[in-house]
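Table S2 (text version). Query chain:
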Amino acid sequence: MDKVNFLFQRLKDKINFLLKRNIRIYGNYKSFEEALKNSQGYSDELILKKKINSFLSVLKGHAAYEQDTLLFFKENYDNDLLDYLNDIQKKIQRNLIVLDFGGSFGTLYFKNYKKFNHTYDWNIIEQENIVNYINENNFNLKINFFKNLNDLKKTPDVVIFSGSIQYLPNPYEILEQLIKKNITNFLFLKTSFHYGKDNIFSIQKVPKNIYQATYPITIFSYVKFIDFFKSNNFKMNKFRKKIYIDGIDHLSFSLLRTKY
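Corresponding structure-token output:
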């Protein structure tokens, strides 16, 4: 199945390349900071404005959900995610506290909330400009937004990094802070990996049909990443998906804490 997915993705990449709408990942820099110096970064005001416009379209019911500022008009539920959250909720027998780290304006929530079997306490940590915009407007959302971990006073039952951890300048520092909170469940979606011993720091170029931007990305050493969690008493819980973006493996899997 992986071979079929790989061939399909390669065909898709070629079509996107011809249409100039492919994501590109290039360069090998000494550090995340060096890659950042050679890219635009995330804080471009035009990107924020496009994100806000897409978010407002979803709130007004003009679209089902948005992802990377692109609007989607048909429901496309992530059944693996829904089953995963439902399984955890059954074990704890109360409302699940979810931390969606780097969850933008609630992409994962809005994409799936109509299929939630329970009321989830959904929390997002995001950039200051996003949190400020939410707090300055009375949207009456069923999502809580925070600028950093210190502002989140409750302990999450599960932390989700949905294609976000590879864009953080200090991913292992963040993971260590979360593990100290005695969190049991971690879910990583569409996270970039390779199979060498060291992390690779590159630049990702966003296609023009989304928005014009370049920003640093960490392509994690899979062995180093999993060993980090093993040393903190986690085991691989489920391995669900592998996709390819510009020749890079992007994996989705969950990790479960075995002891404290």
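Notes on Table S2: Residues 24-257 form a domain with the Rossmann fold fold (CATH 3.40.50.150). The CA atoms of residues 75 and 96 lie 23 Å apart.
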